[in-house]
């Protein structure tokens, strides 16, 4: 564009680059300050056992609550944190906070209470990832056997150290989930290569389960695959009773989604856990059966 239109546009183009560089710097500075000021915190979304209707744990999802009270989505700041080398301290902060919060729910729960934490490829590739995780567990007292780490398929690729790190953490009982399963292009080979315990079926398939035969076929295949590999299947992004009914029919183990709850702040988790039972109960209510 700049080239075709002569000198003025070249100048405009430079200004554009400069402006964007300044914006980027401002956002980077903002994010660093936010982490330092405690504005980054995990929210929690319950994970539900479809057989019992009970909450078996939560996924921690990072949120940035700005000083003006605005809540910023991780889709914007996680990528930025990775880019500016902030993902390691940010990820460590989320993990430690989540372990501390989840210990309370674990202690109050009659059954083991799982905490699932997202890990970015950059964190995983860092040399001291395993010791960072083990230190967080030791310092907070959260049991290693109840911690799940979620990694996307892209993180699992071409990284020989990943397998070693996973092996070390698994010795302590930590479990690994492949997040957004089905969206990457290495799903099957990563299952063969790496010791994972859980498949999280991406919400893009779940959203089509009742309307799109291909989505339904993919979910069926993923659940079958999980079963034959001895893994647990978790469906992400369940929003409707119809989707829940389909997944239950396919014998999916666990699920999470707005149907039960959006991710909420730590202080709201106890209330949410109480409500989940009521929602799952709806599937056997007379209203549903007469449909
Ligand atoms: P993810 O790990 O695949 O998380 C699931 C996303 O789906 C979350 O978005 C969650 O809020 C959203 N979700 C849950 N249920 C529903 C539903 O029923 N419908 C719809 N439409 N969405 C639903 P969120 O919280 O915005 O997180 C986006 C992504 O950011 C996460 O995807 C994860 O990859 C990343 N992320 C979040 N927290 C962290 C973190 O602490 N560390 C790292 N490295 N990545 C994180
Ligand atoms: Mg996740
Ligand atoms: Mg996911
Ligand atoms: Mg995702």
UniProtKB/TrEMBL annotation:
Residues annotated as domain EAL: 24-277
Name of the protein this chain belongs to: Phytochrome-like protein cph2
Species: Halomonas lysinitropha
Lineage: Bacteria, Pseudomonadati, Pseudomonadota, Gammaproteobacteria, Oceanospirillales
Region of the whole protein represented: 547 to 837 of 839
